[in-house]
Structure formats: structure tokens, C-alpha cells
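[job 4471] stage=fold_predict status=RUNNING
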Amino acid sequence: MEKLIVEGGVKLEGQVNISGFKNAAVAIIPASILSGGKCYIENIPHIRDVYLFKDIMQELGVDVELDENGTMIIDSSKLDKCCATYDLANKMRASYYLIGAGLGRFKEVEVAYPGGCNIGTRPIDQHIKGFEALGAEVEIEHGVIRCRADKLVGAKIYLDVVSVGATINIMLAAVLAEGTTIIENAAKEPHVVDVANFLNMMGADVRGAGTDVIKIKGVDKLHGCTYSVIPDQIEAGTYMIAAAATGGDVLINNVIPKHLESITAKLKEMGVEVIEYGDSIRVKGSDNLKSVNIKTLPYPGFPTDLQQPMTVLLSTVNGTSVVTESIFEGRFKYVDELKRMGANIKVEGRVAVVEGVKRLSGARISVTDLRAGAAFIIAGLIAEGITEIDNIYHIDRGYEKVEEKFRNLGAKIKRVKI
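[job 4471] inference complete, writing C-alpha cells
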């Protein structure tokens, strides 16, 4: 086991390059099996979730290679069925994308119920609703999801709630269906668009991704392709918040500034200077930040994945901030650990009231989920003294070379074995 040790009190300065988007990569990797051929996927981050998915694909019978530069070569030509056992699927939430991809290609799939971060109820009823609308019979028994169809036929599907996972999964199942599928009330997140672009590169006909209505005209066959994953909006936002929290000056490269507009707007409201360039963004902190209120929302609203880092930033800002979590009801579990560092936060249901304190103090804390892990690194950076962070495998799931990137910005952070 390993832990991170962070010594606080350093202002981050310099440049950091953002990796490929984890949330897009873990959808595009399983989507590649729809091609039945060879795909070259570039800008894949070297993170734990990618390694897990590589293992899952190999266990299924897919040839997968990942080089040091982040290019993954996936050859699914020998795959003749899609069956993911509990031991495979339980390793990560995104394993459920195998259902849409497997159903789309083989019209039959069997995948154990997915695992992932414990941040609240995450039903897959909207996924199932979409599969059934396309003509599949869905059965859930003994923790295994089985879908089967003689053929899939396009349909109009209205999602009861905006769901990134359901939107992507239905797209995967529909690209090889007969006729046209229309997804209404679709999610608009950047990784939904990225997956749609990847599908189109394989020969699919997906239009409207990025809006709340997506139209998929089924095609007879897909083919392999070369594709590059977009930059990670959440990793970029994490470094933006870290720069602001430490009063630093950081240039964040390889980003799409439009994907960061909600974070940029909130930081500017606090008094942080944010300057946008073509594919970079500069964040300059201030000693006189203002408290703000935040409510997480589907894109283009403030992302739930940055609620935790942002709450850490607000914990030492003078005044009262109100943070409302509207996506995952269990996403305040990390607050108890933050209180051990001196934060003054009261949580009632989905609302956290943050009373800014003068400073946090270093403590030994344990990561509760992926994004909480990133938040705790920021907490350690702004705290007085030493912070020891346990359970860091959560952080490794989504942040590439995390201590190396922070060290390059001047942070005093190291990884040690326990």
C-alpha cells in the first residue's frame, strides 16, 4: 500500500500539461469493439481505470496494447461474444459500456453489475429503458445483466433524467440498429460528444451530440479507425482550483477553454484572475478571495466531479459559501475528513454550508472516492504542516502522474510505501 505526504504552504507556479479525458477514454475503449477491427486511440491517459479496462478487454479476448505515449491499439476482430464476469465488471463503473457495445455488435451480451465510486445511488434504469426500446429483452438476475435481441430497431427514447452513461450506452447499442434512433433529453457533456465523434470515425451516423437531442441513423457495419481523445476537463479544473487555492500562478496547457467555462466563471466571481488562450488557460490566485455559492448541474453547469476540490478552496475563504450537490447524494462523505483538518462545514442532505477558516492544519486523512482524493491533495497544499493521505488508489484511478505534475509546479508532495 502507498500514501501521499504533502507539505503545505507553497504557491504553485509554472506549467502543467493536461492528459486525455478519463471519462471519455473509458467509454471509447469498450466502444471500439463495435468496429470488429483494429482501432488506434491516441491521448489515452496512463491511469488505473484505463489499466483495468485494458485487463477487462484482454480477458474478453480482445488484443490490446498501450504504449508509453498513450496510444492504445485495440483489435477486436477475434471477439465472438461479450461476457464480463463479476470479477471483471465490479472493478469499475464504466464496465457497463460493454452492455451497449456488446448488444450493438452481437445482439446478445452478459455483464455483471458494475462497481465504481460509492458516492450515492447510481441506477441504470435509463440504460435499460433505452435497450428495451430498441427491442432487447433485458434480464437482471443474481447481479448479472443479460440483454438479447433478434434484431435492434431504432426508436424514440426520452430519458427521464439527464444521464451521461445512459446517453452513451444507448448510442453504442443504436449505431448498428435498423432505422433511426432519437435520444431526447440527452446529456450534453464533452465526453458524450467525444464518443459520438469516435463512433462517426468508425463509420457511424450520429448527429446532434452536445445538444439535448441526438439522432443515430443505423448503419450495416463499422470499421477500425484512428482517433485522439479530448483533454480531461476535470483534471484541468482540478489544477485551476489548486492554483487559485494556493495563491499561485499556473499555465494549464492542452485544454479546451469552452469546456471549463463554468469553473472559469466561478473562479472569476471569487476574485481569481483567469486568462484564456487558444488551448491553454492561466490562473492567478489572490489573497482576497470572496465566498460564493455553487450548485452542481449537468453540463454546461458546474460539474459534480469538481464539487469536492471547490469546497476545499472555499473552506479557507472568508465568509459563508453554500454548496449544493444536485447529482450524487453521497458526495459529501469526504467532509468528515476535511473537518479533521479544521474545516468548518455543516452538511444537511445535499447542501453544505462552508464557513471559511483562516487556515487548515495538516492531518492524516483517508480518501473516500476519486475526486475527494484530488480535493485532499489541494487541502494538503494549503494546510499548515504535513498532511498524510491514505487510500490513494482512488486518485490513481483518474489522475496521471499526479505527484509528478504537482511537484513540477513546486508542490512538496511524495509517495511512500506503507
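[job 4471] summary: Residues 257 and 278 are 8 Å apart (CA to CA).
[job 4471] exit 0
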